[in-house]
Design a protein that fits this description.
Blueprint lengths: L10 H13 L2 H9 L1 E5 L2 E6 L2 H15 L11 H13 L6 E3 L28 H16 L6 H15 L15 H10 L8
Antiparallel strand pairs: 1-2, 2-3
Length: 196
Amino acid sequence: MIKLNLTAKNQAEEKIKEYLENNVSENLADKINNGVLIRNDNITLLNKKDLSTFMTYANQEARKLADKGANFACIDHITIFGWAMHYFEKETIEGVLLNQDGSEYKQQKAKPVKKETPKKELAEPTLFDLLSTENTKTESAETDEDFTEEEMQEVIKNECVANVDLETGEVLKNISIDKDIMILLHSLLDGKLEVE
């Protein structure tokens, strides 16, 4: 019989310990007594299993076998002993996780995932938006002054109002218009711009 470093807190745990001591291999006894190193959250931890963590595991397994809505399940001792062997053998089942210094590992809380807000679809630019962009380029190229955004919008508004009917988008007659704006308007209107 192999001696295991397991502490039984009640009669059920004592029966599990007795079964394990009579049936484990030396390799499994070493895993039970010393734990197993595993990787979790990109850190090496010691996975140490005990009878208390096994009882939690057995409870979860019994719930899986219970009828839906049942508060109990009858499980034979052979099945429970099989669960015990599986629990202590399987390295992917976690018991108590310990840091390298022997302190209990506290799993880091997952950082909340930032949900990306859907990007608003930009409305197709209007003729006035394009004129504003063109006027902004022209104004900034012609002067060395730094305009504030408000001043720039005022310049653009005055230029657009003077050259274009705001309701129809029609270029007003007898108004001189910048050559670059004329080219832009011509291309935007698919060559249908008439200049008198």
